[in-house]
Structures are given as structure tokens and as C-alpha cells.
């Protein structure tokens, strides 16, 4: 009996709280629904870390967390060039990216890493000759000095990139130059000039 009285007393208090909160919640809902609260557009800068909001998936792909990408270039038409950890580039639009608010290490310093004892040469697949192993600063793969074309007599000091990474970098820079030239030619040939 005593419990029923306590519950009855608390129900009145809870009901009063709901009555007070109802107009506030209604106004908040109407403000959001009616467009009263419009999110501010985010201004991206080169070097920002972002992720792609909407990535079309096929039925065979597993849903994963979005990859964090680095913004490399912003073009005038709203297209952005993004780069991941493996330095592969992809394009998206400003509307499809969102800022990443996580603390992300910019890059790992691969020049300070040492080859593992069990690191095999990418060319001959052998693990011997550790003293003559060169480590690529881009892909972190090892190559013997004698397996390279042309073969090297000494281990080079400082930064070094393997032939595959050099070729990828050359192709990427060629594509960028080609796109810039196309933009310049399109701008010069536009009828409103």
C-alpha cells in the first residue's frame, strides 16, 4: 500500500516534468525540421585528413570503417585528390568528403626503419646479404644492390626509391601535368574570354 502511494506521488512529478519539456522539444524539432539549423560548410585545406562519406558498395563488399585519407589537391570545380597511406590517389568531390576529427600521424618516417632480419629481397626472394640490402623509402621493401638493374657496387646513403615506386611517381606526375595542361587549354579556349 505504501509503495502505491510513493509511485502515485512520483508519477505526478514525472508528468509535470514531461509537460514542461514538451514545448521545448516541439520547438527544437520544428527548428531542425524546418531548416532553422543549417550546418556550416567546412572549408577544406590541402593536408587535411578526411574520409569519404558515401562510397558505393557492391553486394560482395563487407561494410568497413571509412578509410582516412589525406587531401592532396583541391581543384576549382570542386574535385579533390585524396591520398592514402600507400600513396595511392583517388578523386572525389567536396560534397562527398567529411573532415576527420581523429588525431592522425601525418606520416611514418620510413628512413629510420631498419630492414627486418627476415626481410626477403623483392627480386631474388633471398634473405641473405643483409649488409647489401637497400630499403625503399616509399614502399618499405628491400632490394639487394646486385639485383637492381643496373647493379650497384655500394649501399647508397640517404633517401632511395625502388624502380617500381619511381615509375609510379613519374606516371602520377605525368598525369597531373597532363590534367593541368588540359585545364589551361580549356580555360584559354573558353568562349567568354
Automatic annotation (TrEMBL):
The organism's place on the tree of life at top rank: Eukaryota
Matches recorded under SMART domains: PHD
Annotated PHD-type domain residues: 118-168
GO cellular component: CHRAC; nuclear chromosome
Gene Ontology BP terms: chromatin remodeling; positive regulation of DNA replication; regulation of DNA-templated transcription; regulation of heterochromatin formation
An example Gene Ontology molecular-function term: DNA binding
Lineage summary: Eukaryota, Viridiplantae, Chlorophyta, Pyramimonadophyceae, Pyramimonadales
The keyword Electron transport appears for this protein: no
SUPFAM superfamilies (UniProt xref): FYVE/PHD zinc finger (SSF57903)
Protein name listed in UniProt: PHD-type domain-containing protein
UniProt entry keywords in alphabetical sequence: Metal-binding, Zinc, Zinc-finger
